[in-house]
């Protein structure tokens, strides 16, 4: 038994190294799937970014908004678009963006549930920032990771 110990230790460290490499690859893919979009509307320069947290089937979507406008911006909404057969948002429309001051970062979160993790699909969802009159100021796309199965 003692003679096999160095071989077992090296096999363990090799597996640990491979696991760390795989974790780094997945983390890199997740950080690249979070995108930032700067507004194209010169009268309302906004930066919109979204991050995905979790392994599924329930993900937490964190939405960050930063205004570069010279004055305060009022009455905006955040909307989300996805395939309703695959995903379901807890709050598809967030109307809590009543006031945004220039240069401050505002963070909003919502939950997204994968309805069928067995399909193992990677879909794109969109986050929209718009005004009350329906004009879209900025949009960003998120490539969703594959969902893990629920632990029950």
UniProtKB/TrEMBL annotation:
Pfam families per UniProt: GAE_BBS1
InterPro entries linked to this entry: BBS1, GAE_BBS1
Domain Bardet-Biedl syndrome 1 protein GAE: 47-148
Example GO molecular function: patched binding
Gene Ontology biological process terms from the UniProt entry: non-motile cilium assembly; protein localization to cilium
Domain of life of the native organism: Eukaryota
GO annotation, cellular component aspect: axoneme; BBSome; centrosome
Protein name as catalogued: Bardet-Biedl syndrome 1 protein GAE domain-containing protein
Organism classification: Eukaryota, Metazoa, Ecdysozoa, Nematoda, Chromadorea
């Amino acid at each position: 038994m003692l003679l096999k110990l160095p071989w077992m230790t090296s096999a363990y460290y090799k597996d640990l190294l491979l696991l760390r490499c795989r974790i780094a690859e997945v983390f890199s893919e997740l950080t690249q799937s979070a995108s930032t979009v700067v507004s194209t509307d010169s009268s309302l320069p906004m930066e919109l970014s979204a991050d995905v947290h979790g392994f599924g089937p329930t993900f937490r979507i964190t939405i960050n908004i930063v205004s570069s406008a010279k004055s305060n911006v009022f009455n905006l909404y955040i909307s989300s678009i996805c395939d309703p057969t695959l995903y379901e948002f807890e709050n598809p429309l967030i109307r809590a963006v009543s006031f945004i001051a220039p240069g401050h970062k505002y963070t909003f979160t919502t939950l997204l549930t994968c309805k069928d993790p067995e399909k193992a699909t990677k879909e794109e969802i969109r986050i929209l920032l718009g005004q009350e009159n329906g004009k879209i100021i900025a949009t960003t796309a998120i490539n969703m990771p594959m969902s893990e199965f629920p632990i029950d």
